[in-house]
Amino acid sequence: MAQPLAFVLDVPETPGDQGQELSPYDESEVHDSFHQLIQEQSRWVAEEGLELQEREPGAPGSGHETLLGPEGGPVHSAATLRILASMPSRTIGRSRGAIISQYYNRTMQLRRRSGRPLLGDVVTRSARPSIRLYDLELDPAAQKEEEKRNLLVKELQGLSAAHRDHMLRGMPLSLAEKRSLREKSQSPRGKRRGQPGRGGLLSCCSRLGDACVLALHSLGLALLSGLHALTPWRYALKRIGGQFGSSVLSYFLFLKTLVAFNALLLLPLLAFVVGVQAAFPPDPSPGPGPGCTGLELLTGAGCFTHTVMYYGYYTNATLNQPCGHPLQGGQCRPRAGGLPYNMPLAYLFTVGVAFFITCITLVYSMAHAFGESYRVGSTSGVHAITVFCSWDYKVTQKRASRLQQDNIRTRLKELLAEWQLRQRARSVCGRLRQVAVLGLVWLLCLATVLGCAAAVHAFSELMLQGPVAAGQEVALLALPLVVCLLNLGAPYLYRGLAALEPHDSPVLEVYVAIGRNLILKMATLGVLCYHWLGRRVGALQDQCWEDVVGQELYRFVVLDLLFVLLDTLFGELVWRVISEKTTKTRRKPEFDIARNVLELIYGQTLTWLGVLFSPLLPAVQILKLLLLFHVKKTSLLANCQAPRRPWLASHMSTVFLSLLCFPAFLGAAVFLCYAVWQVKPSSVCGPFRSLDTMYGAGTAWVRHLEAAGPRLSWLPWLHRHLVENTFVIFLLSALLLAVIYFNIQVVRGQRKVICLLKEQISHEGEDKIFLINKLHSVYERKERGQRSRCAGRSGKEES
């Protein structure tokens, strides 16, 4: 078997190097050593009388001509090989001896900084290891390595315990070698401490304390692993990403994000509104309440009406004791000594603060996803990085290793598909034909959206004209049923029209489908918002219209879940069974990312719209999302196949969060702001009864503070100049837009700088190649000159 080539470099040290010993990983020293090498070669060339000249391309000995060996690699002379061996990249990180020598140099520098005596006072410089004083071989001898190890142990003994532990942790060595170095570098005093001696009680107590600390640490790790095991997406996300790729995985990651948003929205509502009202329930209404029949799980009415589920259950009084004599107008007055917990103010502020926290979290998540997905990276070496640098060597279980293999294989498919897509080119006629087909399909889709919106508006007006009787709660499901049917059928029509479009990129196809479904959902929700806050409020002026709106939004959320489950059953399971039994190909259906993602955004928008009228609606949404995760995961693994055209979903999370932020959350915020500032609350229920607007609760609280005394006069001033002043709102909005704009510009600048740096790195590599070729030509000239002189001498001797 051929032995590996051992590069040997013997460079004499200059007098300036006598007082320092730098690490070979020092970047400036690497450049200086390469510069010194160039100067030495130039000096030798000057002594021989040679001169570097530009050669014509293709000339013999030119730097642009490289001889190839039998395996296609370049063939260099012995002098060039010596130069290549002396380059810093050939002398760093090649062997364990080099690593030990490197950390020996670092420990010596630490001793020099701390003022301790150097080992050089005892051991001569020639005995100390250095990158430039010993031959770096790929397989160093055991004797030399042991000498280097002993010198490193002596230097480690001179360091403090903290520095020694830090140095050992950073060494790229195995745990056994680190443990051996730690045992050898311990002082005799430290070794005696670890041995049992006369102080048996002290050593026993210390061992007991260490055992308790280790037990607590193990218990904490076990609890963390147990909590992590309770999450439903522990192994599912890895399995989905390995089998179906990042495009399908983005849907489940988005669902996981929505669960976190709803939990963040629910926690303050439970703490400051629902929990407080449940602890101090209001007086029960006279007469027997409606009984539960089981239909309330679908309609949200019946026995759910007078509970903490809806707005009408919450009172407008202090909550520590029943009300005293009511004031004129029906507002409840607390008795003396009551708890100063203003329920209307708590209800309004909690909903506002919960929405503000959700907004901040959503914007931060979107910015973080933008930075992760649009990070500029060179695509020239991403395939090699995926092949050689993607494996996690900490994986020991077969299941985890199999998932990682699937993930890497799917990742390579996506990268190759994206690379092939960039290589394609379409003719001018093909582009014109594509634009014409796209325009026609878009016209048909927009006509479908207008038809669906008109149908929803007409049916909602029909529902207002015929009120539902007391025993006919099933009729309440008519409007949600019609809307869910339209939302279910229109995406299939869009999918059929998309088959006519010649999309080369599957990413563009998904984005177009998302845009069409988004327009349909937003148009339908816009008509429904007008129906709830415009028509419903006028028709139910003497009733608790907030409960009616909350119940209707609950029905929309529940029926949306049922239709998603039915679509999963008939659209994936039944289709798979039919295709396997009737066709020979047995092709399974693909997972429709656009439609499923828009269903999640639609359901989340319904939750944000109804949180003011049903504070527990986020809890219903969390249960819905968890059920959807398990159902979709099971159906995906059993009934669906991986995309026929793999594609890399690098920007999908950013797109989903952007759609969730701007159309969905912004629309829900506008809806709630209009309900708080403009719509008159009902006078028979809720915490804002007898007020002109819900915002009037804040104004009444400010007037109460003004009457309380001059000590709290600064709070009304802040409310008047910061909350009621529209200029401050416009200024904050302008500042927010300016921050977003500057953030975008900073990201663009960073991308441009990264591109420039990558270009500079490529130029540096070209410069090094040019330098090596020049040095190669210089040595060839030198060798030819020596051969010619030898030939002349031999000719003279023969003559």
Walk me through the topology.
Layout: H1 27-48, H2 78-86, H3 96-114, H4 142-157, H5 161-170, H6 175-185, H7 188-194, H8 200-230, H9 236-279, H10 296-299, H11 343-373, H12 382-389, H13 398-423, H14 428-465, H15 478-498, H16 506-539, H17 545-582, H18 593-610, H19 617-639, H20 652-677, H21 696-708, H22 714-723, H23 726-798
Helix pairs in contact: 2-23, 3-4, 4-6, 9-11, 9-13, 9-18, 9-19, 9-20, 11-20, 12-13, 14-15, 14-16, 15-16, 15-17, 16-18, 17-18, 17-19, 18-19, 18-20
Q: Main attributes?
A:
799 residues; mainly alpha; 23 helices; 0% strand; globular
Brief write-up:
The chain has 799 residues and is mostly helical. It is 67% helix and 0% strand. It has helices at 27-48, 78-86, 96-114, 142-157, 161-170, 175-185, 188-194, 200-230, 236-279, 296-299, 343-373, 382-389, 398-423, 428-465, 478-498, 506-539, 545-582, 593-610, 617-639, 652-677, 696-708, 714-723, 726-798.
Would you mind describing this structure in some detail?
- Helix 2 packs antiparallel against helix 23, helix 9 crosses helix 13 and helix 17 packs parallel to helix 19.
- Helix content is 67%, strand content 0%.
- It is an all-alpha fold.
- One of its GO terms (molecular function) is mechanosensitive monoatomic ion channel activity.
- InterPro entries: TMC, TMC_dom.
